[in-house]
Amino acid sequence: MKKIFAANWKLFKTPQETRQFFKAFKEVSSQSTGELVFFPSAISLEAASQELVGSKIKWGAQNCYHQASGAFTGENSAQVVKDLGGSYILIGHSERRSIFGETDTQVADKVAFVQGLGLTPMLCIGETLQERESKKTFRVLETQLQLGLQKADKSKPLVIAYEPVWAIGTGKVATPEQVAETHTDVFNILKTLGFETTPILYGGSVKPDNAGELIKQPHVSGFLVGGASLEPASFAKIASV
């Protein structure tokens, strides 16, 4: 299975900075044999679209609504992403859940809608530090997957990104042993649900110096990278492991 290396830029980079990044990244990314996916902020999506025309590099939005258009102020349209040439939509990131109150029901609607458009949903799951310390990790991930995928089409593309909430932007990173154990759990849950061929990415303070060890763990199909994806050389190094 081809590895997937995805970059979540969150609320960073102007359109001009986005164009500059891709000009530089194209020069240093030749060593990567995996699929490269970028999630710029909404205002920079068109800049990414224009800069990546004719490139093998894919891109998408960090969020969308579960309808193509309408009176939904402040939301993003997955249909527009598709029309601009995008391929992916990031869904259910922990910051969407914790800051904006996104529910598993909303996540399920978005997954189904995105698949229906012919785009690929990248569904994020993960537990908090309190949940891990209370030994609730498996139960939390199982619930997020069961509910988030309840309307999903097993015949259409889907990617899962496991991101322990306690390791996102904190500098903390799960140990290789923790990653191996949890990715095996996620794989087994997906298998039970009928999604056993779905790629599972790891996210959570992935950097060039730990990517090589983490990619070796079972059922790790690539990475969803935050801060370390903001510099061309840094992300290119991660994507070449």
Task: Describe the protein's architecture and organization.
There is one protein chain. By secondary structure, the chain is α/β, with parallel strands linked by helices. It has one domain (4-238): Aldolase class I (TIM Barrel, Alpha-Beta Barrel). 40% of the residues lie in helices and 15% in strands. It contains ten helices and eight strands. The protein has helices at residues 15-28, 45-51, 78-83, 94-100, 104-116, 129-133, 137-148, 176-193, 208-214, 232-238; strands spanning 4-8, 35-39, 58-61, 88-91, 120-125, 159-162, 200-203, 222-225. An eight-stranded parallel β-barrel has the order 1-2-3-4-5-6-7-8, surrounded by four helices. Strand 3 (58-61), helix 3 (78-83) and strand 4 (88-91) form a beta-alpha-beta unit. The longest helix is centred in the last third of the chain and has 18 residues, at 176-193. The protein is globular and about 45 Å long. The model has no long low-confidence stretch (mean pLDDT 96). Its main location: cytoplasm. Pathway: Carbohydrate biosynthesis; gluconeogenesis; Carbohydrate degradation; glycolysis; D-glyceraldehyde 3-phosphate from glycerone phosphate: step 1/1. This is Triosephosphate isomerase.
List keywords for this structure.
single chain, 241 residues, alpha/beta, TIM Barrel, eight-stranded parallel barrel, 40% helix, 15% strand, globular, Aldolase_TIM, isomerase
At a glance:
With 241 residues, the chain is of the alpha/beta class. The chain contains 10 helices and 8 strands.
